Amino acid sequence: MSTPQALVVRGGWDGHRPVEATDMYIPFLEESGFTVRVEESNEVYADEAAMAATDLILQCVTMSEISREAFAGLRGAVERGTGLAGWHGGIADSYRNTSDYLQLIGGQFATHPSKHPDQCGNGESDNYLPYTVELTDLGRSHEITAGLDDFTLDTEQYWVLHDDLIDVLATTTHPVQPYHPWHRPIVSPAVWTREWGAGRIFVATPGHSLDVLADANVRTIIERGLLWASRTASAS
């Protein structure tokens, strides 16, 4: 058997620490038998030969832009069986101006609600809220999340716009607060998978900072998600 190939594509907004964040997971991929290639530009997606040889893409590119050629290469690779995986803004808040990318992923960051205005000081922690990640019935049996229980985090809580083609493994609920304008609790997907052509897509919305990525539950979900999405897994 040939060695599975993983491609790490990182960049975009520096606040999500794309280099340090992906460096946390590269050793896991290598220990899992992957040969890992790292690219600092998404233009690698336009390289047809490189994409044909790639079994798994770990993308960590928040916001930023993608060329028509690069996106076509990415979507085509996924349709042919290359896995695509990531966390937080590195996959769910990428390429906002490319609507076809948003369709490919199936869920898009809309906002992360803040604390009470009196508690905000124009800092990063203004959007850190304690919240619970709750497993769905599917999540309790799915190989990515099986054996885990609901868990709490104190970090950005993503509000995600999504469609019905995703398989939701975990959710989080945005409560009603007197200082927010919505009038009933909003349930948002927190972990999901998506099948697209012959490929698999995995998304976890926690992962704003390195400490969140090091959380035992988050790390387990991401590591399992990476393996699940890989072409080698989907072909088995």
Task: Outline the structure in words.
The structure is a single chain. The protein is α/β, with parallel strands linked by helices. The protein has helices at 18-23, 26-31, 48-52, 68-79, 89-92, 99-105, 137-141, 210-214, 216-229, 231-234; strands spanning 5-12, 35-39, 56-62, 83-87, 107-111, 128-135, 151-156, 159-162, 167-174, 186-196, 199-204. The protein has a nine-stranded mixed beta sheet with strand order 2-1-3-4-11-10-9-6-7. A hairpin with a 2-residue loop joins β10 and β11 (199-204). The radius of gyration is 17 Å and the shape is globular. The model has no long low-confidence stretch (mean pLDDT 96).
Q: How many strands appear in the DSSP assignment?
A: 11
Order of helices and strands: EHHEHEHEHHEEHEEEEEHHH
Q: Please give the largest β-sheet.
A: 9 strands, mixed
The share of residues in extended strands comes to 25-35%
Report helical residue fraction. 25-40%
Q: Provide mean pLDDT, rounded.
A: 96
* Number of DSSP helical runs: 10
Based on CA atoms alone, the radius of gyration comes out at: 17 Å
Q: What is the rounded distance between the termini?
A: 13 Å
Strand order of the largest sheet: 2-1-3-4-11-10-9-6-7
Globally, the shape reads globular
Which ranges are low-confidence, i.e. pLDDT below 50, for 5 or more consecutive residues?
Answer: none
Computed structural class: alpha/beta
